[in-house]
Design brief:
The protein is an alpha/beta fold. Helices cover about 30% and strands about 25% of the residues. The chain contains 15 helices and 22 strands. Strands 5-2-1-9-22-21 form a six-stranded mixed β-sheet, with helices on one face. Bound molecules: flavin-adenine dinucleotide.
């Protein structure tokens, strides 16, 4: 093999989309791309329901047709690539090839049942199938460090038995995944009645079934998709409990699939006509602090759910007359407000810069400062400078891609909205036609 070798950290849908597109490119154009995927736990771990982030039973908010190859535009490649991608790796191809009940194809069954978005666990099955089919190399182990060498990146990882190994050399590295919970809200004391937006999902029934001495509400801190999904799961649990969502915006904002918004996710020409501020406004409006209408409709139907504007500041465990008490503090209009919770969940966000500590010191230093405000500004400046290939850094020994931070380049590369276009952007960087600017 003489083509480029790309490492991807995290075996989720982004890795699956890139591995699938590399396979199709290799078949049609023969650039001999190699892909190695490093995964700390299991393929599609964050979707299966076994490692947090979801119970696996919730459905995708985006339609199944926004699959690994969507939008299937000729885009930067030969139109045959999009056609082959659809034939080999689309959601429909998966249902035809893989899911079969009796004589009925999974595709027939899915259409007859109304083309619902898959559950997260079903989507995990699709991701697993695509990665296996792509013949990308899968390495199970936690990536702990990237080492620059004169001829490429060496990746250090800790295997399941705790043994450290290094692997390489790679021409470029792609980091994926939402990262660990940020824990922006201060915690004083520990209690089984406090959890976060990842761990809640490891045992939602067990968490919600904990006996509590008080009839205080379940308090969820955060106003985005994670907070709303946790609230929806809590609404379904028995016995019913009051739910208070506290978020630092006026309301839970809602979005749905709508043409005028959706077209901007897949039409670069419209995006390029927008002013930088308008772009930022669009991305914030549709990605951050926003809840898909399927979930917000479910919450609206329950009289048990209330929303309160405020920025969560502290969750404190105290011992009162009735035993353990959970005090939640939040700020609004310069005032601190305290309220008691029977259970508390910090769903205030994930650390999309989680991989910064794995980078070599020269890069890490450009992303790190003792002062939190300064560090935020440094990181924003680096992300704003991202290239069209979704490179955060483009320097020796090879690019570092971070599609989760690509809001300055386009609105659709962070999520499942345009996985096909995201993989085009990254792989285009490794084809013989690439010209360094
Ligand atoms: C439960 C859930 C539901 C979502 N639903 C939607 C939706 O319906 N529509 C939509 O558009 N967006 C949705 N999103 C948001 C967004 O699309 C995803 O966060 C994003 O696309 C995740 O895909 P990914 O491939 O980047 O990473 P993931 O699928 O999150 O995979 C990252 C992987 O990296 C691994 N990993 C982490 N650290 C290391 C390390 N050091 N070494 C090796 N491996 C490591 C993890 O184990 C994980 O498997 C959802 C997100 C979540 C979490």
């Amino acid at each position: 093999m003489s083509g480029k070798h790309i490492a991807i950290v995290g075996a989720g849908p982004k890795a699956a989309a890139i591995a699938a597109k590399a396979d199709i490119l290799n078949r049609v154009q023969k650039p001999q791309l190699q892909v190695t995927i490093f995964e700390q736990s299991a393929v599609a771990a964050n979707w299966s329901g076994r490692y947090g982030y979801t119970d696996g039973e919730a459905r995708l908010c985006t339609p199944a047709e926004r699959d690994l190859g969507f939008p299937y535009d000729a885009g930067v490649f030969d139109p045959r690539i999009a056609a082959a991608m659809y034939a080999e790796y689309s959601w429909g191809a998966y249902l035809l090839e893989h899911v079969r009940a009796d004589a009925q194809s999974g595709f027939n069954n899915w259409v007859n049942r109304g083309r619902s978005p898959p559950t997260h666990a079903e989507f995990a099955g699709y991701v697993e199938w695509a990665i296996a089919k792509s013949s990308a190399t899968l390495e199970i182990g936690t990536v702990t460090r990237l080492e620059p060498t004169p001829h490429g990146w060496r990746i250090h990882r800790r295997g399941p038995g705790g043994r450290s190994r290094s692997q390489g050399l790679f021409d470029g590295v792609v980091f994926t995944g939402p990262g660990a919970p940020l824990h922006r809200v201060e915690r004083l004391g520990t209690s089984a009645r406090i959890t976060d937006g990842r761990d809640f999902w490891k045992d939602p029934d067990g968490f919600l079934a904990q006996p509590t001495a008080s009839d205080e509400p379940v308090i969820i801190l955060g106003a985005g998709g994670t907070a709303a999904a946790i609230a929806a799961r809590t609404v379904r649990a028995r016995p019913p409990r009051d739910i208070l969502i506290i978020g630092d915006q006026a309301a839970l904002f809602t979005r749905s699939e709508a043409f005028f918004e959706s077209q901007i996710f897949t039409d670069d020409a419209i995006w390029e006509r927008l002013e930088p501020n308008t772009r930022r406004g669009f991305t914030d409006r549709l990605n951050r602090g926003v809840v898909w209408s399927t979930i917000s409709d479910e919450l609206a139907r329950s009289p048990k759910v209330r929303f309160e504007p405020g920025r969560g500041e502290k969750i404190e465990v105290r011992t009162g007359l009735a035993g353990e008490e959970i005090l939640v503090e939040y700020r609004r209009s310069g005032k601190t407000i305290g309220t008691y919770a029977s259970l508390a969940i910090d769903a205030s966000g994930f650390d999309t810069w989680w991989f910064a500590t794995l980078l070599p010191p020269a890069m890490r230093d450009r992303l790190t400062a003792a002062n939190a405000k300064k560090q935020k500004a440094m990181r924003e400046a680096v992300a704003d400078g991202m290239s069209k290939y979704l490179e955060l850094f483009n320097e020796a020994p090879g690019p570092i891609h971070a599609p989760m931070l690509s809001q300055a380049v386009g609105p659709g590369f962070m999520s499942l909205m345009a996985l096909g276009a995201m993989s085009d952007r990254i792989l285009d960087r490794y084809l013989p036609s690439y010209i360094a600017s």
